[in-house]
Write a structure and sequence with these properties.
Length: 168
């Protein structure tokens, strides 16, 4: 099955899906494992570092990551249980908002609990790029896009660039 990544296009069905809060995964089975593998393939094909279920029209609490220097990971029903007070600004982009990049402030370190594709619970402490990717993908499960985390001016600039890109 080929997975298509939904793009934010303003007032569209894609946006409605991307803005919904994902529902918990009830059963970690072969179908879910296949979906996770398809998501990993789509993420790699599009040279991304993370991809969440809502981005592919699957409104369940699952995302995959592959941050530089880290293994490919699957997070099912994740919860961010701790964030550091230290914040860091870094440039982010999104496969669902292609061609738009902006600095986003996020906690530098986090702790997340989730289940993997084998149904095993795990807790992970992450910092730097991996922490950023996890927070970005977790936001997708909450119906939040990275452009929502920008200042009003930054968001206006990003949306203006998005409008120009759509007009082409």
């Amino acid at each position: 099955m080929e997975i298509l990544i939904l793009e934010n296009k303003g007032d569209s069905e894609n946006d409605r899906v991307l803005r919904q809060k994902a529902k918990p995964v009830k059963d970690i089975n072969n179908d879910l494992r296949k979906t996770a593998q398809d998501m990993i393939q789509a993420m790699h094909d599009d040279k991304g570092v993370g991809l969440a279920g809502p981005q592919v029209g699957f409104l369940r609490r699952i995302f995959v990551t592959h941050a530089e220097g880290d293994d490919t990971r699957v997070f099912i029903n994740p919860s961010i249980i701790w964030t550091s007070q230290e914040q860091a600004d870094a440039e982010e982009g999104c496969l669902s908002v292609p061609g738009i990049w902006a600095d986003v402030k996020r906690p530098e370190r986090i702790k997340v609990q989730a289940w993997n594709e084998k149904g095993r619970a795990f807790t992970l402490e992450a910092s730097g790029m991996l922490a950023r990717v996890i927070q970005h993908e977790y936001d997708h499960l909450e119906g939040i896009l990275f452009i929502d985390r920008l200042s009003e001016t930054g968001r206006e600039k990003a949306l203006s660039r998005l409008e120009k890109r759509k007009a082409v």
